[in-house]
Amino acid sequence: MGLVREATVRIHRPEPGYVPDGSDTGFLGSGFFIAPSWVLTCAHVASQGEGGGVNVVFRPDRHSAEETAVAGAVVATLPESGPAGPRMPGWPAPDLALIRLLEPAEHACVYVTERPAAMLPGSRVHYVGWTGPRGGRPAAVSGDCTVKGMFGGPADDGQQIRLGGDWMEAGMSGGPVVDLARGEVVGVLKSRIEGEQGGTAVGVERLRTLPVQAGPAEDEQSDPYQAVFHAHDRHHADRHNSTAGVERTWVDAQSELVSGPGRTLGPRQRIVLLGRLADIPPPVSTRALLDILDGLPDVYSGDHRPAPRGWRDGLAALYEVRDGDRALELVLRYCMAVISADRPYEAPGTADATQALWEWVRRTADDHLSRSFRKELDLLWSTGRNRPGPGRRTPPVPPGGAGPGATGRSFVLLALELRGWEQGRYDWRIAVGESNGDFRPVAEDAHGTALADLPSRLAAPLAEAFRCCDEPDAPAVLQVATGRALLDLDVDKWCLTPYEPPLGVVRPVVLRCADQEPYDEEWSAKERKVRWNRTAAGPMRGEVSDCVGGIRVRAPETGELRTLAHETVPLLCQYGGHSPSDALAGLGRVMSAGYGVVLWRRRAGQAGAVCTEFHRRAADTVTQAGTSDRLPYAIHELRKSVRASRIETYWSDSVALLYDDPHHPLPGSGQLLEAP
Asked: What does the pLDDT read at residue 525?
């Protein structure tokens, strides 16, 4: 606990700042050094500073009682915005903030767990923090608690840990929560319970949900999450490896504990390996890291929430998989996958770091594993290091380029169901659709959510699902599955948070129909695949089916629609007209005829308006896209252009795209009912 207290800090307002006589009134709360020059605290603490600035007060020397104050800047908060008014109570969870010091300073750092959901019900934890002036000076306070349970689910940003035990006092928010059995910081104190013992905390793994910057990374500093934890792991590895000092380290303390980080690696092995991994550029995306984990035997990346984001997170996913030599083999296979993985950038020291990681792998294998396995490692090393050089990675999907059908990329599925007995309220499910046709549940809610509340309620689980699929410069497609009566729901225009553009501007958004009309199953299944494969191969052509010279006509009967060429994409010009029941029936006939790609306007033009522009432009869009898998990206570009006020694209403002891939059938209700 001495190591914890040394790294625990006070957060003060930048003005008037801390003064040695203890008369300062600018005390805001607690925090702790998570890495050199980086402080982790609560967002509701850090946000009280002026203009994103705070003072961080701490003891730079463990042997001295003297304190120093260093200016810091709030770099990131979760969520990005808090209560609407300055006096509104409570900052929503996860309520975390990262502060970066604005000048160099010597200080201690805590050791932060890499295990997700480290605080399990029944666990005993210790907490440390500061409280308001006692006798004119702030006072350090600590105590013990028991984990009672959770508020919220693993894919919910509102997840908090309920703590019962000692009294917590005002000012302790932002302090570290420590697992004494394993010797690591596992959470951040968020709140106390007024008039009662205990409070709430947030697991440090929620930092994985920090927003990912758009576009490819240029260096480690492009992503605060990677910057912080690479610095954290290098710091502790350097302290362990150094022979210059005799001060007690976190690794020394952890080595004396009964409970280690897992059954595979001891504390010393772990910290050396984490230091090696921290010298290598991070995964190009969460999706790339999940693919590595899923490629290892007996590892299921979906078990870990939030999804792993850095190399340390991936390593933690292996700790409890197997015992003995097989467990160590798994760790070494993971290291070899890191060596050969695509990289978002190439740093000057990457080659040396890769060589150092290989030497650690080889040395560990020589000491513990069979000759046949060592031979396999030699082959993997030879193959991995001879791959093409700097910055190697799969090129991103270009605007209008190949989509999920061509690249086998994963996508996000949002299934919405209107409650028949409670109008205006929706049940929903979110899953990640894998390239092999499987669906990985992310979150669900069957309690009925009002339409106006859907965007904010879905923001956190959708963000988690997108992070599991997105690649640099290639946002994943969102497939929205609804009944036919809800196909007018303009999910592409939803803003999940007040500071984000509409969903359809951020990524491709397409529709799927969950309640198609009954039809000849054997004929339709075959016909749908034939039509889909033809449009996937291209070229395609668009054909207006419900309008002649601006006059609405009845969409053709199913039999007539079946006679059209397989490369046809129906264009419904008058779908959003004055006869919604006729429009729904017409769209139903189109889908029953085997069409999986359909383009329509949700809102038809005014009576008598000339719609030739839609006919021409929509047909051109289909032709220029060439294949069905490029069409979602073409529509995405149009939505971005409308947002950018490009007049020539205004015709597409209300366009919707049905994209019903028969090779990825929607999961049955039982497949998504039990989300982790």
From this structure: 76
Nearest to 583 by CA among 485, 467, 478: 485
Q: Kindly report, residue by residue over 283-327, the tens digit of the pLDDT.
A: 999 999 999 999 998 888 777 889 999 999 999 988 877 666 788
* Contact by Cβ (8 Å): 273, 359: no
Contact 310, 116 (CB under 8 A): no
Q: What is the pLDDT of residues 216-238, one digit of tens each?
A: 778 888 899 999 999 999 999 99
CA distance 419 to 426: 6
Q: In this structure, is the dihedral angle defined by the CA atoms of residues 406, 408, 409 and 415, taken in order, positive or negative?
A: positive
Provide the 10 A C-beta neighbour count for residue 205.
27
3-state secondary structure of 380: helix
Report the SS3 class of residue 406: helix
Q: Taking CA 632 as the corner, what is the angle to CA 590 and CA 666, rounded to the nearest 5 degrees?
A: 60
Token output for 647: 């007049």
| pLDDT value of position 88 | 46
Helix or strand run (H / E) with residue 77: strand 68-78
Quote the longest CA-to-CA distance of the chain: 89
Q: What is the distance between the alpha carbons of residues 107 and 622, in angstroms, rounded to a whole number?
A: 60
For residues 495 and 509, the answer to whether their CB atoms sit within 8 Å is no
Report the alpha-carbon distance of residue 323 to residue 293 in Å, rounded: 18
Beta bridge partners of 449: 426
Question: Can you tell me which residue has the tokens 């929205």?
Answer: 480
Where residue 107 falls among pLDDT bands split at 50, 70, 90? very high
β-sheet bridge partners, residue 161: 150, 201
> In this structure, are strands 137-151 and 160-165 parallel, antiparallel, or unpaired?
antiparallel
Q: Buried b / exposed e across 227-241, counting CB within 10 Å, b at 16+?
A: bbbbbbbbbbbebbe
Amino acid at 389: G
Instruction: Tell me the three state secondary structure of residue 564.
Output: coil
CB 168 within 8 A of CB 156: no
Give the residue among 468, 431, 442 at the shortest CA–CA distance from 293. Answer: 468
The residues with which 38 forms a beta bridge, in sequence order, are 35, 100
Containing 522, the helix (H) or strand (E) segment is helix 521-537
| CA dist., res. 387 & res. 384, Å (int) | 6
Structure tokens at 127: 């907490």
Q: Are strands 411-418 and 478-482 parallel, antiparallel or unpaired?
A: parallel
Distance, in Å, from the CA atom of 354 to the CA atom of 277, rounded to the nearest integer, reads 9
Going by the DSSP 8-state scheme, the letter that residue 408 receives in this structure is -
Mean pLDDT of 630-652: 94
Amino acid sitting at position 224: P
Rounded Cα gap, residues 652 and 666, in angstroms = 27
Where b means 16+ CB within 10 Å and e means fewer, 415-450 reads bbbbeeeeeebbbbbbbbbbeeeebbbbbbbeeebe
Beta strands in 376-522 (DSSP E): 411-418, 425-433, 439-450, 478-482, 509-513
CA 185 to chain centre: 22
- DSSP string of 78-100, one letter each residue: ESS---SSTT---PPTT-EEEEE
- Mention every residue, 6+ apart, whose C-beta is less than 8 A from residue 578: none
Assigned token pair, 434: 């894998």
